Amino acid sequence: MGQKPRIGLSLTLVAALGTAGCASGETPEPSAAATQARPSAASPAPPTTAAPHLVPWIDRVCAATRLFRDKPKAPSKRALDDSVPDRVAGDFAALALLEMASHLNFVADTTRASAELLEDAGPGPVEGGAEMIAGYRGALRKLLPKVERHRIKKKKDYDGIGKKVRQVSKLVAALKTGGPDLDSLVDRDPALAKAYAEAVNCGDDGMFPRPGEGVPTPKPG
User: Fold this and answer.
1) Which residue range is the domain that position 98 belongs to?
2) pTM of the full predicted structure?
């Protein structure tokens, strides 16, 4: 009687050979799906601070254009009743005149200083910067002679000072740029928006410029 084939032994050898092949350090090639699933190298993170050349430029522009956004408040008229002594009432009247004169001169000084800052601002390193600067500068140049006309320099300038304050307040309230405004540039340029957020004069601590003093340097709050 012939011998039966040793099928069990053959299967055992095949399994052993397969195990030996895996143990020998030979690994199968990864599938295409596995290759695609691997995470790629991380992209560099965007910078957390604004470009250094943008911050001083936008800081100057914000100071020079503050008059377009923050309108100086004219002094309010003090009402006194009849019980106030004449001497005290006279002092209040004199103080009111001084406050109105200070307001008129402040507006004239701020207008002049703002125009000066924009004369030296340059077109700026952003698209549309030249048109924006030209629009603000042109509006300030038109306003300057009108507010200078009401500057208080000597005693006779106090005549009709209340009317002068009202006229200047209307001029400042109507002040608008003749070109694209700063907000429109900031909204469409992420780099400029980052610089705007870092520039002190673009925030609540910003200051009005003074003639001959350059860009104001307020202390951050």
Assistant:
1) 54-70+91-202
2) 0.73
Domain assignment present for residue 77? The answer is no
Does residue 218 lie in a domain region? no
210-221 mean pLDDT? 86
For 155-172, what is each residue's pLDDT tens digit? 999 999 999 999 999 999
Higher pLDDT: 130 or 25? It is 130
Q: pLDDT band at 24, cuts 50/70/90? A: very low
Would you say residue 118 lies in a domain?
Answer: yes
Which distant-in-sequence residues (6+ apart) come within 8 Å of 41 by Cβ?
none
Domains in the chain, number: 1
Asked if the structure places residue 208 within a domain, the reply is: no
